[in-house]
Amino acid sequence: MFPTAHLPSLYDVVRDADAVSEEPTKETVWSLLREYELVPPALSTAGARSLLKRLSAESGITQDGEELLPHGARRGLGDELYDTSAELAQEVLRHQSVETTHASYRDDDVERLRGAAEDALSGTSSGDR
To answer: What is the pTM of this model?
Structure first.
């Protein structure tokens, strides 16, 4: 889960907290959230789409000429995590079981393992190609 940076949503959390008497501002809202151990709301799907659209435009990174979408970003994150640890990927992606994670990412892992095996047998590394 990623916290939103939507200022009106963050202000609402601070204003709704009984312990906080200070009015939040753009400069103070994050420090007030930390100081009073308040949990910011999660980034919404619309917020994620907006963020990815902006990041795609700024970076020039697209998929088939289209801006990145939340599912593609989640998939990319899952690929990277699965390469490190299937259990880590399962936990971060909140899959019910590690079997779900294996089913979703095993094909990618097979390709990675095939490349590593070919490299080992040929005496090269992927970086040498």
So the answer is: 0.54
